[in-house]
Structures are given as C-alpha cells and as structure tokens.
C-alpha cells in the first residue's frame, strides 16, 4: 500500500507487482504455460529444466548494431525496453539445433519451431491473423550475426499498405527479471485492453483504448444476434451506474458474457476505469512515468 500523500512517481519504483490468476500479461501467461507443460516430464524427461522465459525487445531500429554490439543484452541494460516475454525450449533434432517458442502474450496458438539451418521442421512465415481489414504474418529465424538472438519479423497488410516490424528475442539464457522489469513496465503501458480470443488466437470480444492526456472513450466489440458489433463509448457514461442507458447496459452484458467474466464484472470495471480516467492529476503522472521509461530506453 502506498502512503495517502504519495505520488505515483514515488510509489512506482518501490512497487512489486503480483501475478494475478486470470489477469495475466505476457509474463503471467508465460509462467502459466510453463506450469502446464510440466505434465510432459514423464514422456519427455528434462523438459521442465529446459523451459525458460526469454526476453524480447520490440521495434528494433538497427538489427546489425544491436546484435553485434555485445554477445547478449547486457550492453543495452539502460537503453532498452524489455517489454515482452515468451517461453523457449532449446531442442536438437538429429544433431541440428533449434528452439521451440510459445508466445501466448501475442496470442499465437501454435508452438513456433526455429531451426538454426532454417530447414524442416522450421516454421517460417505463417499467417497469425487474417481479418477483412488487416492481415498479420509472422516469421522467426536465427540471427546470423549473433546466434544468441532470434529475429521476429512481423508483416501487417491493410489494403495496399504494408508495414513491417522487427523484434529480437534473446534465447541464450533465461530472463530472470520478468516480474520486476517487464510486468512492472506493462502497468503504465499507454494502450490498455481486456480481450477474449478463440483457440486460434482470433479476437472475439473485448474493450481497448489508448491512454492519452485527454482520453475520453474506449472501443467495445462483441458478437450479437445481428452480427459483429463495434462500439465507441464515452467513459463518462459509466461514472454513475444508475444513469447508464439500458441499451448500453445490455451491450456491456453481452460483451461481459463473451469475455467469460462474472455477472456484472465488466460494468464494474468500466465504472472504476471511468473514475480513474476522470482523475486528471493521476493520468498526468501515469503518462509521465511511461514517457520516462520510453526516454530511458531511447537513450534520451
């Protein structure tokens, strides 16, 4: 608990975030999948010791510079954001080295196989999601300059516009500060979401919104009897529960059920969010903490 007059800037460095069941970021999801995979120990002796959380730096600007400056990320401890984690297992097939990757944080519904020689059973490019408005394709491959890293390439296609992104996953050693660094960093991330997905990783229902100095609304989507619904709703609508229009309550309840929450839980979450968003002083502090982390990672 923080002191009553303690600011977020003072409280945040001391806070030790818990990993909460059913409220997981990539860190909690990685821990959960490792826990569940332990049942394979009988059939695959040694798998429990082989599993590890590994760190990922997203949006790499200069691949060669990053990968060759040092054997591992220690040279970038100040100027980096360890903002994502996943599970890795090193494997050998007929003497050939490879890595299994499980990334539930990015809702990848398959185990990706990365072989050093990029030959079978190397996964290669695959379609992660294919929606009418957006198609995402992923590819994972060993970095040739530094075999401690796996390159994660993302290709996003919207109509004729194609955007590419590169991330680097450090797989030489386990990432030991996932909770104290990555989980904590995600607490002040400036995009918030609560989502449900089907077994293939496709979005089915949820809410999401960016955090800005003047955030006023969020997007809610769900399936209804008349098809897929996507609504933009004002946070202020939820400040007083008794004043929320009946049709909005009905839509929130439909989304609530598809998120598999307890009765009335989403409505309660939205009411608490509306109160937080309306607190200009707190929001300014939160965005300042996030910006400080971004500046540190950029070395500015």
TrEMBL record:
Protein name: Uncharacterized protein LOC113516163
Organism: Galleria mellonella (Greater wax moth)
